[in-house]
Specification:
seven-stranded mixed beta sheet, DJ-1/PfpI, single chain, AraC family transcriptional regulator, Rossmann fold, alpha/beta, INH-QAR
Length: about 200
């Protein structure tokens, strides 16, 4: 099972790297994430240059697609050619978006009739797409999920792991990466955020 972590120029490192790193702790179980970029190299909002592991066309074959946010997301959704390279299919893929990534899902028509989560800066732009924004870190309906706030990227990863490998696998990953002494609290918070969303589990 393969996960495309879509990472555009101007990306937020916390979004792409946290989600990718957590999912990749499940490699031995057959779940693997790849930083997926529209160009061979992209530069983060803080100047970190990264070489993509997969080209953007990889999203068509991925089992799950997570769209990270960044400072150039509004440019992304205004670029018809770039958007056309994202043939996402919620009938067969898990599709998640982080913060301003919700704008990409809205542009693709994937948020029709459902609310979404995003960050404070992106909120007015998501609302301008006629999408109701929730005061919550995570929301999922069926195969589509959104997360709001950089550190909510752990919830997107938890959702993907839970949906593909089960709750025990997600629990093991969260327990390993949790701050020492806060293991149970960290695990339960993430699982609670994911499970509270109707349709987040099979």
């Amino acid at each position: 099972m393969q996960v495309a972590v879509v990472t555009f120029d101007g990306f937020n490192e916390l979004d792409s790297f946290i989600a990718s790193a957590l999912v990749n702790r499940c490699r031995k179980d057959g779940l693997e994430a790849f930083i997926t970029t529209p160009t061979p190299r992209v530069t983060s909002m803080n100047g970190v240059e990264v070489t993509g592991q997969r080209p953007l066309e990889f999203v068509a074959e991925a089992d799950a697609v997570l769209i990270g946010s960044g400072v150039k997301t509004r440019d992304v959704v205004a670029d018809d050619r770039l958007i056309s390279r994202l043939p996402l299919d919620p009938a067969r893929q898990l599709i998640g978006a982080q913060c301003s990534g919700a704008l990409v899902l809205a542009r693709l028509g994937l948020l029709a009739g459902m609310p979404a989560c995003t960050d404070r800066t992106s909120r007015p732009f998501v609302e301008a797409c006629d999408v109701t924004v929730l005061d919550a870190p995570f929301h999922a309906e069926g195969n589509i999920a959104t997360a709001g706030g950089c550190l909510a990227s752990q919830y997107l990863a938890t959702w993907v792991i839970t949906r593909t490998l089960g709750q025990d696998a997600a629990r093991a990953v969260l327990d390993y990466v949790a701050p020492v002494g806060e293991n149970q609290e960290t695990v339960e918070r993430a699982l609670r955020a994911v499970h509270m969303s109707e349709g987040a589990l099979h």
